[in-house]
Amino acid sequence: MNFKKILTVAAVVIASGMAGIFHSASADDSFSLNYTALKNGTNDTSMADQFSVKPGSARIVGDHYQVTLSIETPAEYGLFPVNILQVNGQTPSLSRSTSDGKSVITYTFNTNNLTDRIVGHMTVNIPAFRYSGDYLYDIVFDATGAPTIDGGKVSEDQAQEGAKAAQAAEQAQNENAQAGGAGAAGKAASNKNRPKAQVTPKAAIKHDKKDKAAGKSLPWWPFAIAVAVAVLVGIFTEWRSRRAGAKKED
Ligand code: HEM
């Protein structure tokens, strides 16, 4: 093999190696993706939104998007109070981590497009607050500018459906925060909205039957009958004694 041939082979090997690197880098290229969690079937912001880590991320894998989102809860809610059971009809792949006592649950699921509303199913269990919930919630993405599967970019028009709902919800949240006197919108406000109160779910409140009976006022009609009978007996007795007196006089 002469020197020229060796150089050519080396160049081809390096070029194909680099192509491989670049190819896998682009396949793994994830992009950040803004989103809002909404109450299922509404445009109202879900309680889950204030615990959602923004932005999320996504990447194109073959013919679909793989989306990764996280929920972070404070230390006082205990270790991993949130579980994600289903997203977009799939069992998501989950990973859990902690930082400074905060729990982070990260879930990954697939979707064919970023303009659809996605439905998720979560459970929340916070024994310290005697709170547990089993909820559906919706996810809408603000997908403007995100890469499309065919190599383009999601246009504003395409993203509008999802983004509109997301923005409306975000705006409503900020307005609520301002109306509540929180002053600054955004994270500080949503932290302020975070429930601190202890909640006992209705199902857990057992009403004692005895307590209920004790609290109930007694009916009025037995007293009325008793008084009426007493009056009648009194009249009858008086009438009898008068009649007996009258007979004696005879
Ligand atoms: C101590 C903390 C919490 C309290 C006191 C609390 C309280 C409540 C209450 C009172 C409701 C309304 C109940 C109902 O509509 O049936 C609710 C709904 C809900 N909560 Fe919580 N919650 C807490 C934490 C969380 C966390 C950490 C998450 C998830 C990250 C969460 C997610 C939800 C969801 C998804 C709903 C359904 C309505 C919606 O989408 O906003 N909650 N919560």
Automatic annotation (TrEMBL):
It is found in: Cell envelope. Coiled coil: none annotated. Residues 171-189 have a biased composition (Low complexity). Residues 1-27 form the signal peptide. Residues 171-211 are annotated as: Disordered. It comes from Eupransor demetentiae. Keywords: Membrane, Signal, Transmembrane, Transmembrane helix. The keyword Manganese does not apply. Residues 26-149 form the NEAT domain. The chain crosses the membrane at residues 220-239. This is Heme-binding NEAT domain (NEAT). PROSITE patterns: NEAT.
